[in-house]
Design brief:
By secondary structure, this protein is an alpha/beta fold. The chain has a single domain, classed as Rossmann fold, CATH 3.40.50. The chain has a 7-stranded mixed sheet with strand order 3-2-1-4-5-9-8, with helices on both faces. Strands 6-7 form a two-stranded antiparallel ribbon. Helix 1 packs parallel to helix 5.
């Protein structure tokens, strides 16, 4: 059982439990509308296959749509999420796939047990002080040379949400960061950076994806 040792973890979990159905509805069909996201996941799948294949963790999987997309791409993907309600939705939507409740701050995975990791806009709720530990966890469970894909909002602010997509009260922060800041944490955790992609640089909130490789 996951122990919530930090307030931000328990707030994030309860907020997504509260708003799980609204969030799942919002992201439904998202990948079909975003060619750059699909291309990034296709490239990630290719990198996993090139590295020999194996289980891939979608960390912060939410309702499982990325896990399912990777599975359809021939990747042996499974999902982990902090929110039991999100995991329940993912299991209903993708009954043939594996989903587990867990936290990226303390992954319940054996060292070197996964061939790749995707963190698809899931680290946005992790405060700065906890980011190094999260990336150390990723490095611990990844096989040597294993690929990592990290997606996030680009910016220099933290936005607080007190109302969810279902109009019910929530309490969650989203941290918008510059790619260079995320790259620094990754390098400190023993990753080599392979590529950076910034999507919608002229939009109010650009998105970024970083491809990295485990050196451990």
């Amino acid at each position: 059982m996951t122990v919530m040792s930090d307030a931000w973890l328990s707030d994030t979990r309860s907020s997504y439990d509260t708003d799980a159905s609204g969030y799942a509805e919002k992201v439904q069909g998202l990948l079909g509308e975003r060619p750059y996201l699909r291309a990034s996941l296709a490239l990630f799948a290719e990198l996993v296959h090139r590295a020999g294949g194996g289980p891939v963790a979608d960390v912060g999987c939410g309702p499982g749509y990325v896990t399912g997309h990777l599975h359809d791409s021939g990747v042996d993907a499974f999902g982990i999420d902090l929110s039991p309600e999100m995991i329940a939705i993912a299991r209903r939507n993708y009954p043939n796939l594996r989903f587990e409740v867990g936290t990226m701050t303390d992954l319940n995975l054996v060292d070197g047990s996964v061939a790749g990791i995707v963190a698809f806009w899931s680290v946005i709720h992790v405060p700065d002080h906890a980011m190094p530990g999260v990336f150390e966890q990723f490095g611990r469970v990844l096989r040597p040379e294993g690929p990592l894909l990290v997606g996030f909002h680009v910016g220099d602010e933290t936005r607080h949400a007190s109302e969810g997509y279902t109009s019910r009260p929530i309490n969650v922060d989203s941290h918008y960061r510059r790619p260079g800041k995320v790259v620094g944490w990754l390098r400190d955790a023993g990753f080599t950076i392979e590529a950076e992609l910034v999507m919608g640089p002229d939009e109010d909130v650009p998105g970024a994806i970083i491809f990295a490789r485990s050196d451990a």
